[in-house]
Amino acid sequence: MKVLLIILLLVYAIGATRPPRIDVEDHPVQEHDSIGKFVELKEHQTIIFKCSGPHDDLEFKFPDMSDHKGYNEVTYLNRVEEVNDDDLGDRVLTITNVQQSDTGAYSCISLEQSSLNDTIYVFVHGENTFIPSIIAMLSYGDEDVMVPCRTTMFVDKNDIELYADGQLIKNAMKNYDHRFGYKIDKNIYDEKLSDTRFECKYKKEPNQRVFS
Ligand SMILES: *[C@@H]1O[C@H](CO)[C@@H](O)[C@H](O)[C@H]1NC(C)=O
């Protein structure tokens, strides 16, 4: 009897440290080494996330969309619904009429222990290959800045080019991440950084570019 109790406690303890799992219904979840789990949608579709795990305090975290042109918090919240799926203790998040500015990382976390989390990156294909941004550059640590050329679809990195004042920067793609953009070493540009005009292009559609 005592042994059984100990085993039950152990199973419970192991379960409680298992991270929640986030999934998407009706759209295939793909996976890539560089960005993990991701889903691709077209504008106006609906996405339903389900988060499950041995926790009763699961909550969704939304991407930071504050610099996405076209993002409006009020209309966004009108398209979002988050409920508990009582049968299973799961948490369900539905976003209707998705927009390209909804592109970003959606996570599910245990409130008490936020290191227990799981993330899916969502790309929403719209009219732009890059999410139009209201800011040109993001500081990133002391040494780096980020040119926020984030794509609205999972394109081949080799097809994304970075230009500085019209000059192609070779090998920039090794510092490229679909989710954040191009990381640039500040030291290369010294004080000139703020005068430099960065631009990203998608080779397959040269008209698709982000002016920074
Ligand atoms: C998710 O967990 C990882 C470690 O497993 C942690 O680095 C990250 O900050 C967590 N995310 C959140 C939103 O707390």
UniProtKB/TrEMBL annotation:
User: Can you give the residue ranges of the Immunoglobulin domain?
Assistant: 36-125
Signal peptide position in this chain? 1-16
Query: What top-level branch of life does the organism fall under?
Result: Eukaryota
Arranged from A to Z, the UniProt key words for this protein are: Signal
Question: Among its keywords, does the record have Signal?
Answer: yes
According to UniProt, the name of this protein is IG domain-containing protein
